[in-house]
Design goal:
rod-shaped; 150 residues; mainly alpha
């Protein structure tokens, strides 16, 4: 760009035209106009500065929110369930509150009547009769050989 064109850009900008309008008049991008104005020592307009700041703030806020959400999930073993819950224990939380919640759940199951002679009776209700034990070993065999998925 010639020195005269650059002066024209500065004058158009001072007259209140937007970067886009000036760029369209000279057939260049508004970013190139902004760079020329900066090289000429022209301060960026207040609106340009505020909009750039607003975009940076929005991006920062969004990044912080996403990072906080990811950290929360990582701290909770991938879930959003609270400490002292059975689901946190099942995701590997070793704290005493989560272990106590699992123990309480297991005790509550054992107080109920177990399903009659099944894998669930052996695993969830603690029934150790021969029929439940056999149902459990059969279920494990089927899973190992890929006949049942779960």
């Amino acid at each position: 760009m010639t020195a005269e064109q650059k002066r024209g850009i500065v004058l158009m900008r001072r007259s209140g035209r937007t970067l886009q309008e000036v760029g369209d008049a000279f057939g260049v991008t508004r970013e190139y106009i902004r760079q020329i104005l900066k090289a000429q020592g022209e301060p960026p307009s207040r609106a340009d500065t505020e909009s750039r700041k607003a975009v940076r703030v929005r991006r920062l806020v969004r990044a912080v929110a996403v990072a906080a959400r990811h950290q929360l999930r990582a701290d909770m073993g991938g879930s959003l369930s609270p400490h002292g819950s059975r689901s946190r224990y099942e995701r590997g939380c070793p704290c005493d509150a989560c272990r106590a919640a699992q123990r309480e759940y297991t005790r509550s199951l054992r107080l109920k009547d177990p399903p009659t002679h099944s894998w669930s009776g052996y695993m969830n209700y603690g029934c150790r009769c021969d029929i439940c034990r056999k149902a459990h070993s059969d279920a494990l065999w089927l899973r190992r050989h890929g006949m049942v998925t779960a």
